[in-house]
Amino acid sequence: MSGRGWTSLFRAQSMRRWQSSSTLPPPISKFESLSDNSRRFAFALAGFLGGSAFIYSLINPNKYKMSRIKSMVGLESTGKELEKRKLTSREKRFIKFSSVEYEGQIYMTPQDFLESVIEAEPKPRLKRRKLGDREISALKDNTPDMAGNSDSLFRHLGNKGIISYTEYLFLLTILIKPSSGFKIAFSMLDQDGNERIDKQEFKVLESIFSSAAKERQENQNLEDNDYGLQKGHQVDTSLLVHFFGTGGDEELKFSEFCTFMDNLQTEVLHMEFGEFSKGAPSISELDFARILLRYTFLNSEDYDNILERLYDRLQEEKGITFEEFKDFCQFLNNLDDFQIAMRMYTLADKPISQEEFSRAVHICTGKTLSPHMVYTVFQIFDDDGDGLLSYQEFVAMMKDRIHRGLKNYSRQEGWEGFKHCVKKEMREAS
User: Fold this and answer.
1) What is the C-alpha end-to-end distance of the chain, expressed in Å?
2) Strand pairing report for 320-321 and 196-197
3) Residue 269 pLDDT
4) What are phi and psi for residue 27, nearest 5 degrees?
5) Is there a contact between 91 and 212 (Cβ–Cβ < 8 Å)?
């Protein structure tokens, strides 16, 4: 018999084997036996469950993927093994720049902190330096009290000091706070209203900034899995010694607190300015633009176009002094007030002129920007050269600047942008 014949015979026998000899009609599925209304309800329920699963996978993509993998290999969590929370951008940056460690907890040095707000990457190092009790004691003795505060304090301390993660968040907040917010921040600490705070009152504010650490503790074993950000032991950091003395029994005055904030802002600005001035009293307008745009989410083509446009529009290079640079950066710390003033002034969000811009800055900060500074800013951000500024786009880009690229203001597009919007709406609805 040919190969084709054998194949036909095998198929016929297989069909006879699986065919039923019963004369009953074919069975009817439970779904087909339902009424039309019941079928519609079943379809709606299936759609709802499928849509809910889809939304959940968008909001928790890693959790969804991990649960699938665990179920496939038979390692589904029993409820005790909770998922490890992802690190925030600030946590990642603190871990990346921290260069010292004490009893399992990592710390920044004052020099590490300055580099973390100025540089994109830390300096190369083999590993973190581990400190003992003797080194910690020496660091306390090396830290000056408030009488020795200056706008070069952190540079003077260098690597001879330690800053915890909660203090890192606190110091970052100081860098973006307006002068009008200093009183509010101090009042939060000054629980008894005597214009002074002690060490324990100061730690009240630190507990606010450690909310992320508390959330992490609720979701995992803190001692084992917190990357050394928050350990259980207590140590007097350089900031605590500077504020409250080596014994921790001194009090911090409101005026001293304001001076510390202003000096820290000035010190960071000095470092940014000095990176381009190289010791000169001023920087070029192009370098000023580079400083403003370095933390924004511009692609390289748009970045180059802005610098080229500024170069073509400048009639002569006058330069930007440090005082002009500092005044403008302090205005950026009042960006929210500026945005409110512009909304009330323009009503319809119309572009503004240089005179209107200068007046709004003066109202928000009490300082007057130089005409050359205002002219330079407009040449940087005025797209079509009509002498007017779209303040919405200006505000969005400058918020990236003051938060130094660690915050994203809805600049995502496409699929990532869609997921971002879904997450935001779900959080607001909950």
Assistant:
1) 73
2) unpaired
3) 95
4) -65, 150
5) yes
**Tokens found for residue 210:** 């450690």
| Residue 15 CB partners (closer than 8 Å, separation 6+) | none
Q: Which structure tokens are listed for 196?
A: 């002074």
Give CA–CA dist 177/334, Å, rounded.
8
* pLDDT for residue 17: 41
pTM exceeds cut of 0.85: no
CA 153 to chain centre: 25
SS3 assignment, position 130: strand
- Position 121: which residue type? E
Q: Which residues contact 117 (CB under 8 A, 6 or more apart)?
A: 172, 175, 268, 404
Tokens of 110: 């004052």
Q: Which two tokens stand for residue 11?
A: 């198929």
Structure letter (DSSP) for residue 321:
E
Pick the closest to residue 169 from 263, 242, 88, 256 (CA basis): 88
Residue that wins the pLDDT comparison between 204 and 66? 204
Task: Give the pair of three-digit tokens for residue 218.
Answer: 């609720």
pLDDT of 378-407, one tens digit each?
Answer: 999 988 888 888 878 888 888 888 877 665
What are the residues whose beta carbons fall under 8 Å from the beta carbon of 102, sequence distance 6 or more? 130, 131, 132, 136, 162, 235
φ and ψ of 282, to 5 deg: -145, 165
Q: Which long-range contacts (CB under 8 A, 24 or more apart) does 234-237 make?
A: 235/102, 235/103, 235/136, 235/162, 236/140, 237/107, 237/161, 237/162, 237/163, 237/164, 237/167
Q: Which residues of 385-402 are buried (b: 16+ CB within 10 A; e: fewer)?
A: eeebbbbeebbbbbbbbe
- Taking the C-alpha atoms of residue 121 and residue 137, their distance in angstroms, rounded to an integer, is 30
Least confident of 75-79, 132-136, 249-253, 348-352: 75-79
